[in-house]
Amino acid sequence: MEKGVAESAPSSKKSNANSKNAKKKEVKKETGLGLSNKKDENFGEWYSEVVVSGEMIEYYDISGCYILRPWTMSIWETMQAFFDAEIKKMKIKNCYFPLFVSPGVLQREKDHIEGFAPEVAWVTKSGDTDLDVHIAIRPTSETVMYPYYSKWIRGHRDLPLKLNQWCNVVRWEFSHPTPFIRSREFLWQEGHTAFATKEEADEEVLQILELYRRIYEEFLAIPVVKGKKSELEKFAGGLYTTSVEAFIPNTGRGIQGATSHCLGQNFAKMFEINFENEKGEKGMVWQNSWAYSTRTIGVMVMVHGDDKGLVMPPKVSSIQVIVIPVPFKDADTKGIFDACSETVKTLSEAGFRVEDDLRENYSPGWKYSHWEMKGVPLRIEIGPKDLANKQVRVVRRDNSAKVDIPVSNLVEQVKEILSKIQDSLFEAAKEKRDKCIEKVKTWDEFMTALSDKKMILAPWCDEEEVEKDVKARTKGEAGAAKTLCTPFDQPELPEGTLCFASGKPAKKWTYWGRSY
Amino acid sequence: MEKGVAESAPSSKKSNANSKNAKKKEVKKETGLGLSNKKDENFGEWYSEVVVSGEMIEYYDISGCYILRPWTMSIWETMQAFFDAEIKKMKIKNCYFPLFVSPGVLQREKDHIEGFAPEVAWVTKSGDTDLDVHIAIRPTSETVMYPYYSKWIRGHRDLPLKLNQWCNVVRWEFSHPTPFIRSREFLWQEGHTAFATKEEADEEVLQILELYRRIYEEFLAIPVVKGKKSELEKFAGGLYTTSVEAFIPNTGRGIQGATSHCLGQNFAKMFEINFENEKGEKGMVWQNSWAYSTRTIGVMVMVHGDDKGLVMPPKVSSIQVIVIPVPFKDADTKGIFDACSETVKTLSEAGFRVEDDLRENYSPGWKYSHWEMKGVPLRIEIGPKDLANKQVRVVRRDNSAKVDIPVSNLVEQVKEILSKIQDSLFEAAKEKRDKCIEKVKTWDEFMTALSDKKMILAPWCDEEEVEKDVKARTKGEAGAAKTLCTPFDQPELPEGTLCFASGKPAKKWTYWGRSY
Questions:
Q1: Model ipTM value
Q2: Mean pLDDT rounded to a whole number for chain B
Q3: Which residue in A75, A84, A130, A139 sits closest to A106, CA to CA?
Q4: Inter-chain contact A66–B98, Cβ cutoff 8 Å?
Q5: Closest-CA residue in chain A for B105?
Q6: Residues B179, B259: contact at Cβ < 8 Å?
Q7: Which of B70, B77, B170 has its CB closest to that of A99?
Q8: Contacts of B64 in chain A (CB under 8 A)
Q9: In whole angstroms, what is the distance from residue B508 CA to residue B516 CA?
Q10: Which residues lie closer than 8 Å to B227 by C-beta, 6 or more apart?
Q11: What is the pTM of this model?
Q12: Cα–Cα distance measured from residue A23 to residue A29, given in angstroms and rounded to the nearest whole number
């Protein structure tokens, strides 16, 4: 395309815009294009701004609740289609349990409810009538579901029981609501499975965790660490918790990406989920629960977004390619527009998610900014020169690289470039994340790394008291440090290595840091 | 298959079952096979029993809330896949708005809130803390969404705005909760669209209504009448309501299947949803909202179910074909089991939803009953004779018709039979429904038809006071009669025809009856 055209005035029909500048200013004012915060300077403000300007989120009049706009929902649906198909292959079936829980059931499992009680929202009235019994809104559905597992599971033939639901849950947190990351209502899937043996449960925990890794790494292009949570950080009432952990370099915080819990037999005991095995012996089931939520989308924004707005990985972007006509004075405007439509048709038929932006009242430059703000991975510009040369100009969102592609080779090259974008988003994120990882051995090194916003890998004695102690000693405005996870992929731990915090013999390498 | 084999004892491993009868009884007791209520004798009890025994619903410990089991969810997902794809073709986009509404917003539209106020559930506490402002749970999302429509819509370029969401809503009704049909929480989609002109809104109302008709008629095999609701029965705060109306012959009640509302400009006025048109003139948007819910599934159960259990239309059945081995004494059991697996493989590869039931501890007869209870459209039995003759025996759920099919022709014939089942379920339902339709002209005829549980088509003056009067005059234990809809497909109305209720000149033919 012609250089300079992008900055020309919009071909606006507005009658009160007389000069180029007046027109541009007006557009700018009207639409609020461009971010006023920079990612590296003011991350929190930048994040709030980019999710709104990128049209993912609208703030709502109830604090901690957010409107998920179509640009968000299409990402959610893409991940959902993948995950839902995968769990169906595993013979996990979808169901839907009620939003409401009665207090008696909610409080059955003591450790569990202690973890959630302060955040539970209570319905006490309908219309003008006070309810006799207050009713809780599910913060998660273990206690909603398990009384019925007890009813449905009688013999070994009823096992395994593997259910999942896609739903909303409510946790009325009062600390720092943040779109996607910490909201009072969010969308998720929650899987709840019961097995005859611990081995089956253990195996499924890791199968699901692998799906979560794929969601982050293959779809959202975000590197994650698979590992096990500490006793202090595991799911309230469960046996052990595995997770995928991401990291936000800008804030130096870890973020729990998704969790797959083995609940052991604790809930089975509380809810009396027993079965009779082949030999007529009584047994208690082994249970798992696992979930990922719309939080995934927030991590994606934080990791990939830049000062021009969102950066969407092609695999999850609602629009992968946006085609923009760049007319110029007396050039063949109709020809250009037709070429745009033709390009959309070709790519669309080849299976890409592609749209054109033929609106006449916005300048190409305005459109570039608009679609950059929304993070569309690839922009195709078609101007008079492109038309003449039977080519299109292609611009990558992630690194602004430009290349001219002959129309004859459009599909192949777009495919290749989108695939490259997906890969290099992941590589770039991994490089950044890896730079943040610091291996330490002593408390001093730990404290230095913490103030340097690192994701800290340290040898640990694996004692709960020591983690509590680290928390207490690192308390401060930015929040205390805690364990993120003990990675499955363990570096060598030489004989005699000591715990960075307690000086006792270390048992494992564990990631530590501040977290969301 | 061999006659008699079906009634043989289960090859049970239970050690305490000594005689055939003892075994059979035990199985019966354990699993509760067979319905204790008959559809024609005790419809209400039959319905409650069939949704539970068919494993669609589990009753929950909070009244009016139900667990939707996988057998239900797969129907919902099938309809959702169809509808979601259709509305995406119409460029309607999915979004997700919060579950919660603040009271100020909820009460903005007076007529609307009057319709819903008594049923609104209120959250007043989180943890032990009383909330300063009570928060409502959405009974529907007009008031949740439209303040943001006002924000997002500025000029004609922002129109049309077409959003949909799949979500749960809560209506805390106290009258006769019924699974699917009237529950305190239910799943639905709700579409909310805004247009520059009434013409566009009118057009969309009917496009959506046609999709609802297709869900009922093409998927659930239930005949519906498309029409317009009376002023008294239209959506609170809207301009006019269209609906698809089904009818339950057993109870003689109409049931509103789904509604597509034109809201006119009433909400636009209340929520100030204005825009500037091409000429710079101010305008107010025209809005629609439309929804269908899990109620659809209840109607399906009521219309097709019989004394053996559910009857599932093939298009929505999670399992379309169940394959059951019928071993016999010294017959080649392995050969039979292999033939079953092979049949599943063949049909599965041809795109059918098919499973086998190879469980060794249940008799063929028990399995027949089990899958009949769940309503699986087609059963394939494979016994020694079938094996020898390279055939399978096929049994239809809807009419018990049996036919032997050569294995060589399996796919074609199964396809044809499933298609026939889908059609004849619809035809049978239509025939039954049509028999219930009675055209009346006078009050006496009307009252007779009403007590005969008819769906009554009557000439009406279309006055709200007259409908109120009919309601008052027909009040009773079974509930008052009201208008169901004025069908778009109008019979001829001869000049001079009088209203059946008021004796004034009739303006149209309208369906009346008792309803859910």
A1: 0.92
A2: 92
A3: A139
A4: yes
A5: A61
A6: no
A7: B170
A8: none
A9: 24
A10: B242, B243, B245, B484, B485, B486, B487, B488, B511
A11: 0.93
A12: 10
